[in-house]
Amino acid sequence: MVTNPDTNGHTEGSPKTVSGNPRGSTDPAVYNEHHQNFNEAPLPSTPEAWIQRAAQVAAVLSKDAVSREKENQTPFAEVSLLKSAGLTKLLGPIKYGGGGQSWDVAYRVIREIAKGDGSLGQLLGYHLLWSWTSAVVGTDEQNERTQRLVIENNYFVGGAVNPRDNDQKIVDGGDHIVFSGFKHFNTGGVVSDLTVLEGVYEDTDKHIFALAPTKQPAIQFLHNWDNVGLRLTESGSVKIENVSVPWTDALGWDPATKAPIESILTIPWATLLLPTIQLVFSNFYIGIALGALNFASDYTAKNTRFWPYTPRPVAKGTEEPYILQRYGSFFAHLRAAEALADVAGLKIAAIYNDRSQKRDITAAERGEVAEWVASVKVVATDTALRVTSGVFEVTGARATASKVGLDRFWRDVRTHTLHDPVAYKEQELGRYVLQGEVPEPTWYT
Prior knowledge:
Strand content: 5-15%
Radius of gyration: 22 Å
Structural class: alpha+beta
Number of helices: 14
Order of helices and strands: HHHHHHHHEEEEEEEEEHHHHHH
Low-confidence stretches: 1-17
Shape: globular
Oligomer: single chain
Number of strands: 9
Largest sheet: 7 strands, mixed
């Protein structure tokens, strides 16, 4: 495993330039003052203190978000800031140095970071999800070992788990398994210390999840992520060539029989990663939209001019009736989206807080929480797209200048809301309402 984390929380092997990456990387040293301040302070101990810590980080990230996004360098520096602030440890057990918080707090923290930088909100959300994988599909011993490894070393976790690519295969190597294949999308892998691998075991239809050190020759990043939005997420392709993992690290599998443990992997509990990550998506959509609203309102207050060619002109832009109406509508819809997301977050948290020991959630209970998550996905997608495009109507033509950077919010939301068609979430909810049908677990439900 990757070892030897330095005092700022980023590991050796976080270079200023990444091999094969023509764009270069940001230097963690640019945040040294913040690293020092966070390292000298204890981790927050209450949910509100964690939200405040996230707001501090978001404020730092927002200062140069526009220029940083244009440069599109690998965000080692920004991930190091998440680490030194302790946000990467948020869900970890307190006994290993983690924050001991539950998922409802994690969702709010993700949302807060996304206000400052949507890419970093996504990266943090994915890290929290992948570092939680062992709690869902691993044995108690595997989860305990994984949590200790991740939290004590303050590792950042990426994931080569794109279910639309089914060519990653796993073969038996004796006392280990060997992963080989290709994934078109691999969010955060380049900046990670550990990578969650997923593939299909030879001659079966059974999937295996396992964590492996990222910095090894067998994991080759193509550095081809150059999309219109979420440009700093390093969500490009990765080639996996004979990555060896001990059988004991195959989550939820018996290394003696080399078979899945039915009491772990054939129950509804094992499918909880899907609604958990879907709610991660919605929270950084909402966070990005809130960031757009904050950015736009500040711009309007400082720069937007009133419209003089009307029977009743006002004195300044912030008194324009149509501008007031639009901001009021944006604000109301975002408040509603946040409230719905918070309810769903509490439901996810309650399952993990109350049922982890026995993993006894039923298919109906799992389906019920999935529909709460689907409801948030529909509302968050519609609201975030509406707000991030609509803010131009209340800021004016000059706000379309590239140097302003207002467009980044819409580009971020538009990019990820194409992850899986929200129309199918609406149909799923329709079947739930009209036919009383809870969804069958899939890679996207």
